[in-house]
Amino acid sequence: MKTKIARLLGEEALHSEEGAKVLDEAAEIIRRGGLVAFPTETVYGLGADAVNKKAAKKIYEAKGRPSDNPLIVHIAYISQLAEIAGKISPAMKALSDAFWPGPLTMIVNQREGEPLIPRETTGGLSTVAVRFPSNPIANALIRESGRMIAAPSANTSGRPSPTSGEHVIEDLDGKVDMIIDAGSVDIGLESTIIDLTEDIPVILRPGFITRGELSKVLGEVSVDPAIEGVESSAPPKAPGMRYRHYAPKARLTIVEKKSASSEPVFERIIKEALSFAQSGGKSAIICADENLSHYEGLDGVKVYDIGRFEHDDEIAQNLFSVLRQCDCDGVGRIFSESFDTPRLGGAIMNRLLKAAGHDILEI
Ligand code: TXA
Ligand code: MG
Asked: Whose CA is nearest to atom 33 of ligand 1?
């Protein structure tokens, strides 16, 4: 398949004549059951008409995604949530007032009677994931198409989520009808997912909107034990959180600080990275900007600055692109610091631990 690649860089591009043409064409592709990759504020999404069964199936094919892993339905009007769920509950109202449009996904029950969103989109579940993104291109596409758009992250299944148009092109060129490249996204981690179908709302995937922020609006909020790393026989409630994910090609080990001092961590990372390099491989270190000077002048070791620990939104923004960069640079072994920052640390480490397959060295 020939993929049309359209570049819309900056807000003004969207409102230009060219921008209007691109959106027209993208909306038409969605209406006739095709696939369009588009930017959101979190990561790029791979979109199709959410009520079109054949179109939803195409998403799974293009990504190589297991068919029991449900898609998020993206909307651009609150009324669309009511259409899906049959009503707006007080919790939905409170959350949408506080966080929509934005990086929050709500899991809700479908309306009674004939469900609106087909099983092909929901992975066979009776519940649906709904998100109202804030990115203007995403919004314009949903509105212009006149549809709700089902969209997982626009990566090949298992690879790090795409945070730039280039990443999407790497994974999906030739497999989808159109890619809208709008440069880098704002947040860089996928939306927080909260399940509203339980008595006490449960966080199924941590993200930019934190548990504390959700509790302020909802009162008590719990966290799915499977994502807290607690040994549990129960599988994660978000099917997608079961799969190995976000992984670079190289084996990745996280070196975690268990004592008060950071020095032993730096020393161990350097020792491991040098030893791999000396055996003839290319090794990589991922570190916080503040620690960069500790890793200078190491032969055969590539050092990636992931952003400032003190500004963890930078780390969130860079995480997936650093993992992808390791692949591009042909790295064979990666050692990373841990980034358990106060605000976004939970979400960042959730992704990094998955990418590492929970390979941790405690120092
Ligand atoms: O930020 C985001 O959420 C991005 C952008 C494109 O919006 N999308 C995204 O989609 O991350 P995806 O497919 O990569 O991740 C969706 C997650 C999966 O783990 C899936 O299992 C879970 O949401 N999910 C979807 N529907 C669900 C449901 N009804 N119940 C529980 N989990 C659900
Ligand atoms: Mg994904």
From this structure: 238
